[in-house]
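Forum > Structural Biology > Help requests

Title: Can anyone predict the 3D structure of RNase H type-1 domain-containing protein?

Hi all, first post here. I have the sequence for RNase H type-1 domain-containing protein but no way to get a structure on my laptop. I'd be grateful if someone could post the structure tokens.
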Amino acid sequence: MYKCNVDAAWKKDAETCGVGWILRDDKGKARWYGAKAYPVLLSSLEAEATALSWAMRCLDNLGFGSVVFESADSQILMKAVCNPPLWPRLTNYM
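Reply #1:
Sure, ran it for you. Structure tokens for RNase H type-1 domain-containing protein below:
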């Protein structure tokens, strides 16, 4: 069992935003992580969605098939993942 925590740092007037993720095993030991900067996105929600989408792509490329994802900052994002039609602005991330 693996859990991946994702997060983003976004500020309205900044030129870039940061995203990151960390994958832990069932004992809590860090196994993989990633962080990078993106050009500024339109909102903190889009930054969080970018972080989640990037983490999912990375872990898929690394061969992880079953991962629980968690975002402490964005419960709205988790609702959007569970019900994409209610969040059309985030369709490209789903």
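Residues 16 and 40 are 4 Å apart (CA to CA). The chain has a mean pLDDT of 87.
Shout if anything looks off.
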